[in-house]
Structures are given as structure tokens and as C-alpha cells.
Design brief:
With 291 residues, the chain is an alpha+beta fold. The protein has helices at residues 9-17, 19-27, 35-46, 100-117, 141-159, 179-182, 184-191, and strands at 7-8, 53-60, 65-75, 78-85, 90-92, 95-97, 123-128, 133-138, 225-226, 233-234, 258-259, 266-267, 276-278, 287-289.
Length: 291
């Protein structure tokens, strides 16, 4: 990234969230999308309200940023930029607040609008759809200075050759789409031997896969399930069902994978009664009846 290249407003948003995330996306050009990212994209594609200007492209060589505004409205004769977010607003002492990264983003759009229209932008608004809240963000000198500082910081990071350190706020990593690339827990463990990694699953889920058939969670009024080896009946803890193999579910018509002696491909008979399912046989999509 050269000094003459305008920085994306979304890159400033990533910078405010985590400098390491900014570096991965803008310098190393590694971008990933998880369920949250796709949900946000679907939300923006659905925005089409009558009387609004949606997806307005803005760019400024003077400020050094560019971006696409979600919506622009007039309120009491003044232009107000709108940004839509799928998540929830931040809980503040005086009520809902904008997250710091969202505040920086709407501030950057306000500066772009001022240069493009010649009108002073006094306020931006962020719509959080998860809790149906609209947060007003004043565009004051403090907000403008935050945008300038973020642009300068992004230039410094883009000129470097070393990834910024992992953020100290571990809660951010659980919601980051690039966590599998960033490897924050592994990095913290390597840097600090006494670091305790954040658990992704409860302790009860750390166990080997059970190959014993008919392992079912205990249901109300259910009879004990006979053990495969001892023959003794017992009730299994529902948490144990999460580690069973697919062929171990009792009462299911799921059959084991059958290997063809002539071909290396496998065919799986799926449950479905009289309904037909397509097999994964290499000879073609021939229907096969589950028995």
C-alpha cells in the first residue's frame, strides 16, 4: 500500500477493532468471511428504503480514504449519514452507545461527505438491527481528529514488515473472522508459558469418540441401554451423545459406508424410507433406495 493509495473506510474500522486484523487484511491481503460477515452482507443487500440514497461511493485524495456509505438522509434540512450494523449497540452508562470502531467509521464517512457536498455534517447515525437501536454520533472536532490519527496510524502499519502483536482483549478474537489465520491463542501461549488459553468448548466435550452403538441421551421414561461388551444396562449422560460416531445412533436407518471392490469411490445409503437419495457413485447420479 503506497502513501497515494486511499485507505478503505472499512480498513479503518478493522484498525480500531484490532491492529493485527488491519495488517492481515490490508498488508498481507488475507481476507476471510464467516457467518457474521455473510449475515452483514445480506443485511446491506436488503437495504432499499424508499426516499433514501443507498450505497453512495465516496473518495478523497486529501483525506486519503474511500468508502461506500450505506444510506444518506436529510433530517431537519441537514444531511445525515447512516451506517447499518447487524449486531447490538454497546451498553453505556447513559444508554446505548456506538462501538469505537463504528464511531470511527461513521466519522470517516462524515468527513468524506463534507468534502463531496460542501455541507457541514454535524451528526451521523448507526442503526443496530439486533436490538433495534439507532445511536447518534456527534461529528465534532474530537471525531475528526480520531479519523486523521487513524489514517496516519494505518500508513505507519502498512509501511512495516512485521505483524502487530496480538490484541490484549481476548474477547475480540472469538468474533474475528481471521482468528484461524491470526492464531491468537497459539501466539499468546508461545509468548507466555503461563498463559491459559480461552476454551472453545466445555471441559465435558474433551473425550474420545465412542464407537459403541445405540448411545443415546437419556430421555424421560427411557429404558437403560445395554452395554455392547458387558451387556449391563445403563443410562448415558446426554453430554456423551456429542462424541458418538454417526453409525452409533440407535433407531436410525443410516448405514455404514460401503466400499466398492472395483472402484475407490464410496457410496452412502442415507435414511429416508421410500424416498430416493442420490449416491456419490462415480458412475453417475443414479438414485439408490435406502434399505
Amino acid at each position: 500500500m503506497s502513501d497515494a493509495t486511499p485507505i478503505r473506510v472499512m480498513a479503518l474500522h478493522a484498525l480500531a477493532y484490532c491492529e493485527r486484523l488491519f495488517y492481515l487484511e490490508e498488508v498481507e491481503e488475507i481476507r476471510g468471511a464467516d457467518a457474521r460477515v455473510f449475515d452483514g452482507r445480506r443485511l446491506h443487500e436488503a437495504l432499499d428504503e424508499e426516499g433514501e440514497l443507498v450505497t453512495m461511493q465516496l473518495e478523497s485524495a486529501t483525506i486519503g480514504i474511500k468508502g461506500k456509505l450505506d444510506a444518506l438522509r436529510r433530517r431537519d434540512g441537514a444531511l445525515v449519514p447512516y451506517e447499518h450494523k447487524k449486531g447490538r449497540a454497546r451498553k453505556g452508562e447513559g444508554g446505548p452507545e456506538a462501538w469505537p470502531s463504528d464511531r470511527l467509521q461513521i466519522g470517516a464517512y462524515a468527513l468524506l461527505l463534507e468534502e463531496a457536498t460542501g455541507e457541514a455534517i454535524l451528526e451521523g447515525r448507526i442503526r443496530y438491527h439486533a436490538d433495534n437501536r439507532t445511536v447518534r454520533v456527534p461529528i465534532d472536532e474530537s471525531t475528526r481528529q480520531d479519523v486523521r490519527t487513524a489514517v496516519e496510524r494505518s500508513r505507519i502499519l502498512a509501511a512495516g514488515t512485521i505483524r502487530p502483536p496480538v490484541t490484549s482483549n481476548e474477547s475480540l478474537c472469538g468474533r474475528c473472522s481471521l482468528a484461524p489465520v491470526c492464531l491468537p491463542e497459539e501466539t499468546r501461549k508461545a509468548e507466555t508459558a503461563t498463559h491459559t488459553a480461552t476454551r472453545l468448548f466445555p471441559a465435558n466435550d474433551e473425550r474420545g469418540s465412542r464407537q459403541q452403538p445405540h448411545v443415546l441421551p437419556r430421555l424421560r421414561g427411557a429404558a437403560p441401554v445395554p452395554d455392547r461388551h458387558s451387556g449391563e444396562g445403563r443410562h448415558y449422560d446426554p453430554r456423551e451423545a456429542g462424541a458418538t460416531s454417526p453409525t452409533a445412533v440407535g433407531g436410525s436407518r443410516l448405514r455404514r459406508v460401503r466400499r466398492s471392490p472395483r472402484r475407490r469411490h464410496r457410496a452412502r445409503l442415507l435414511p429416508g424410507g421410500d424416498r430416493r437419495r442420490k449416491s456419490c457413485d462415480a458412475r453417475g447420479p443414479r438414485p439408490q433406495r435406502a434399505t
